[in-house]
Amino acid sequence: MHDFHNHSDQDLPITGADTTKETELDPGGQALADALKWVFVLLKICIFCVVILFMASGSYQVEENKEAVVLLFGEVKGVGPEAIKEPGWHWHWPYIEEVIKIPSDDVVMNLEVDDLWYYQSQNEKAGTRISSGGPTLQFVRDGYTLTASRSPVTSSSAQDNLNLSSDATDFELSGIDYNLVHTKWQIQYSVTDPIAFVEQLWNGTEKGWIRVENLLQRILCDAVIVTSANNDIDWIIWDKPDKFRDEVQLRIQQRLQRLNVGLEVNKIFLTDKTTPRQVAEAFNRANSARSEKNTYIKKAIATSNEILNQARAESLNIIANAEAYRKKVVQAAKADASYLQEVLDKIQKKTMEKVPESTPNYKTQRQEVFQELLAVTIDQLYQEMLREVMANAEETFVLPVVGEEPLELRTYISRDASLPPKKSGK
Description:
Layout: H1 2-11, H2 17-23, H3 27-57, E1 59-62, E2 66-72, E3 75-76, E4 84-85, E5 88-91, E6 97-103, E7 109-113, H4 122-126, E8 145-147, H5 158-162, E9 179-191, H6 194-200, H7 206-229, H8 233-239, H9 241-259, E10 263-274, H10 280-354, H11 362-392, E11 395-399, E12 408-412
Antiparallel strand pairs: 1-5, 2-3, 2-4, 2-6, 7-9, 8-9, 9-10, 11-12
Helix pairs in contact: 7-9, 8-9, 10-11
């Protein structure tokens, strides 16, 4: 037992100063530990900075007059208005999501289109050089559209000529005098549906925007070609150029609606129009004759309107005078009727006074008396009328008695307007 305890005492751990000496590191180990400690601190700082930079790289700003659409793996993120980012600061996942900024719908962009204009060099476009275009039109190089014609068709029907048959060699244009026209255009357009615009048309790059303008150019050219083919050159250049422009704009809008690419044409302008330069002199002469014809037509219309207005005024005056005369005659007739009725009443009253009912056979006697009084009254009225007529007569002739014929009295009222007015009563 004693030996065992002695052995156990020898195996007990050393405490105190001896233990501290064994846990302390040598200078090399201490330096390594300090270095590792600072490395871990720097590593944490780097990781924190990387996270901050990563988060910061996902923030972006949408400028005024712009909108933004975020693509996640090439697909638009969000639905409806939620997918459109308004002006301001926003955030997206860097390297995973793509931000495409688009002009807002209140931004109007301009596009000049001269594809249907004749060829011009850079000097000609700058105005430093003028070219007549050569003796003939260069159909490959020059832009133009073909217009319809009003000239008569000598073939069986114009519709047959305008429909290509299966054999292209049978298609003839005999008797149809088509004309060519050069036009320049300007398109004002805007993006009205950013989602459709990005999904269907634009990829957010400069080359992608060239694709947008090329699409608008093709749509404009197609609309001009179709509209020109359905109208003649007079209508396009001189008669109704504004209506020509409006029809082209309507066709463009209908085409964009069918394509659903998020674009809308606000306005188009027909900035220039002309006939081929090689035949400009002939067209100018025709236009001068046309202007002269229109001048004569306008003068004739003005004269016609003046005559019609004068005739309307005279007719209204005649109608007014006739209406006034009618009212006067009606009033005079009513007055005469009232007067005659009053005279008849007096005759009736006087007849009843002369022949009372107590008189034998009074009805017959009243009738006789009434007729006598009526004859006297009529004679008095006739005499009054005759005196009035004689007073207004310009000339009076009394013819002598021939045989047993009575005297014949003739009066002329205003027989000759050149005679002086009557001064005396004879």
